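Quiz preparation item.
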């Protein structure tokens, strides 16, 4: 039995909630320049533009609802007799709103603000601006609490520890193009853990998985969860 399950999720799990993916046709990085809106250098050059980008994404997120894939993963955590940990690259809060409790946001969270001066974090206002003062140190270098390219993702020690202890690693809705998350499957293989990919199409790392299933997240995730819970 797969007692301890570590699940990596990406933009594909939220696609059917209406939140755009990054690299698919019409994806976010086909419309915006990543260097301008998702790097510390881009923020230094034009903080207003970066806030505008994330303000729009925060608004989309607030208007979106969790879908059947998020709900199935929450059901898995609630009913599975072993441990379930979600490690998400997504900055939306749809896993939590579906009821998942153990969620690591390795790329940060849209709904949180971060002071670039002192590191304090707090609940983000719906519309943030570079002039927002930090509630702790009063500096006016407020940014979204998002991990940008060139920065270290959050809670990596905890993630690698969970991977080392897992019985099953599942990757859902991610293209496998962004490291370190794209390397988790190799990490799991080296630890002798079974690996499963659930995605619309083969990811970049698809050949590294023991098993691969393709389809829409709202179809393939609920049926996989049913299988796990029924012990099949
Ligand atoms: P991508 O846009 O790179 O990949 C999304 C994946 O989801 C693709 O492989 C799609 O085939 C798949 N997909 C799309 N719709 C789906 C559906 N309905 N059901 C199942 N799968 C579907 O997004 P990520 O891999 O999440 O980082 O991107 C990783 C990181 O790159 C993001 O966290 C973000 C981005 O730049 C930062 O901003 C730091």
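Solution:
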């Amino acid at each position: 039995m797969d007692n301890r399950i570590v699940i990596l999720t990406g933009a594909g799990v939220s696609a059917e909630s209406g939140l755009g993916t990054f690299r698919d046709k019409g994806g976010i990085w086909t419309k915006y320049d990543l260097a301008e809106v998702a790097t510390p250098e881009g923020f230094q050059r034009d903080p207003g533009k970066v806030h505008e980008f994330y303000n729009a994404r925060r608004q989309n997120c607030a208007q979106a609802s969790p879908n059947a894939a998020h709900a199935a993963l929450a059901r898995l955590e609630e009913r599975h007799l072993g441990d379930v940990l979600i490690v998400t690259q997504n900055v939306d809060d749809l896993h939590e709103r579906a009821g998942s409790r153990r969620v690591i946001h390795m790329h940060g969270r849209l709904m949180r603000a971060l002071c670039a001066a002192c590191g304090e974090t707090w609940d983000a206002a719906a519309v943030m601006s570079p002039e927002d003062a930090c509630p702790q140190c009063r500096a006016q270098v407020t940014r979204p609490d998002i991990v940008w390219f060139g920065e270290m993702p959050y809670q990596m020690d905890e993630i690698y520890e969970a991977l080392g202890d897992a019985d099953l690693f599942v990757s859902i809705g991610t293209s496998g193009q962004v490291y370190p998350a794209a390397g988790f499957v190799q990490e799991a293989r080296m630890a002798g853990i079974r690996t499963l990919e659930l995605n619309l199409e083969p990811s970049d790392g698809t050949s590294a998985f023991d098993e691969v299933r393709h389809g829409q997240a709202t179809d393939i995730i609920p049926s996989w969860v049913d299988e796990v819970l029924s012990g099949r």
